[in-house]
Q: What sequence folds into this?
């Protein structure tokens, strides 16, 4: 990560943390009253092919049964709370990741941080993709997120979800992430952040 990108991340994360402090407190109280504890969800993600970190989100689902892993597909839809659907639709569940950005685990723009199981299954691919710091949003997120959601929503079992994600999502997202990597710039990052915000605000 370049110094200019890191300074951009820190400056924007601090500004948003100050701006969102009061709304986040009200959001936290609403979530505690409506769906109880735990308020936050912690997930292991990979910063490089060998370096994990803990990613933070507001919790959007009921507790997972023992042994469950992998990305969320149609097989997990019943576990999403009413509040969780709102958080996911507006991406407010990702506000706690400002802490990950300040710590240096993530950037605002880059590939979405992958789960260990997919990195271990595709080490050569992720060695290239994770040359960019994982991000809150990115080129692949902007252009493939909704299509990925539709693909995974049609999956009825964990095995089907894993197969569809591995075969149809990972390679396409990686191609887009590598395009970003070859063309990244501070101005480009700002444009992707604004485009992501516009996409969220205009979503049905």
A:
């Amino acid at each position: 990560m370049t110094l200019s990108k890191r300074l951009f991340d820190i400056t924007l994360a601090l500004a948003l943390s100050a701006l969102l402090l009061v709304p986040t407190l009200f959001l936290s109280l609403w979530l505690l009253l409506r769906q109880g504890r735990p308020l936050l969800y912690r997930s292991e993600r990979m910063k490089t092919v060998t370096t994990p970190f803990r990613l933070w989100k507001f919790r959007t689902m009921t507790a997972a049964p023992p042994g469950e892993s992998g990305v969320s597909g149609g097989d997990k839809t019943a576990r999403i709370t009413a509040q969780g659907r709102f958080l996911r639709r507006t991406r407010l569940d990702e506000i706690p990741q400002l802490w990950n950005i300040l710590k240096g685990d993530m950037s605002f723009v880059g590939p979405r941080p992958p789960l260990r199981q997919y990195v271990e299954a595709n080490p050569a691919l992720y060695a290239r993709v994770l040359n960019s710091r994982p991000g809150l949003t990115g080129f692949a997120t902007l252009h493939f997120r909704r299509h990925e959601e539709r693909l995974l929503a049609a999956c009825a079992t964990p095995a089907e979800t894993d197969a569809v994600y591995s075969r149809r999502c990972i390679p396409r997202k990686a191609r887009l992430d590598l395009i970003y990597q070859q063309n990244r710039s501070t101005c480009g990052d700002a444009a992707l952040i604004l485009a992501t915000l516009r996409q969220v605000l205009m979503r049905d």
Notes: The mean pLDDT is 95. The chain has eight helices and four strands. The radius of gyration is 17 Å. Residues 128 and 190 are 23 Å apart (CA to CA).
